[in-house]
């Protein structure tokens, strides 16, 4: 199963911006974090959120909204920005108590 779906590509000069839909995974680093944790200045921006169990997207989500598993995000991003967001949508890496 795909972890995201690219809905549109937008050529901008020699670069491409992507609009992608990403479902927040239950074990993801993003789960429980505010929307802004899914963003990177100049690389990825959350355009809208469809909360789990709802039909429509919220096109003006509060930046402090805490993402929940099965929320769906519409993201405008560069390829690198989408890749970074998808990496944070993977399992959270626990910190070792001995600093390693």
Which helices and strands appear, and what pairs or packs with what?
Layout (H helix, E strand, L loop, with lengths): L3 E9 L2 E9 L20 E7 L21 E6 L1 H10 L12
Antiparallel strand pairs: 1-2, 2-4, 3-4
Description:
The protein is mainly beta. The protein has a single domain (4-88), classed as Alpha-Beta Plaits. Helix content is 10%, strand content 31%. It is built from 1 helix and 4 strands; from the N terminus they run ββββα. It has one helix spanning 79-88; strands at residues 4-12, 15-23, 44-50, 72-77. A hairpin with a 2-residue loop joins β1 and β2 (15-23). The termini are far apart.
Short description:
With 100 residues, the chain is mostly beta strands. It has one helix spanning 79-88, and strands at 4-12, 15-23, 44-50, 72-77. The longest helix is centred in the C-terminal third of the chain and has 10 residues, at 79-88.
Q: Biggest sheet, in brief? A: 4 strands, antiparallel
Number of helices: 1
List low-pLDDT spans: none
Record field, number of beta strands: 4
Mean pLDDT: 88
Task: Tell me the number of structural domains.
Answer: 1
β-strand amount: 25-35%
What sort of overall outline do the alpha carbons produce when their principal axes are compared?
A: globular
Task: Give the CATH topology.
Answer: Alpha-Beta Plaits
CA radius of gyration: 14 Å
- Annotated CATH homologous superfamily: Regulator of K+ conductance, C-terminal domain
- The CATH level-2 architecture is identified as 2-Layer Sandwich
Spatial strand arrangement across the major sheet: 1-2-4-3
From N to C, what is the helix and strand string? EEEEH
Distance separating the two termini: 33 Å
Quickly give the structural class: mainly beta
* Helical proportion, percent range: 10-25%
CATH class: Alpha Beta
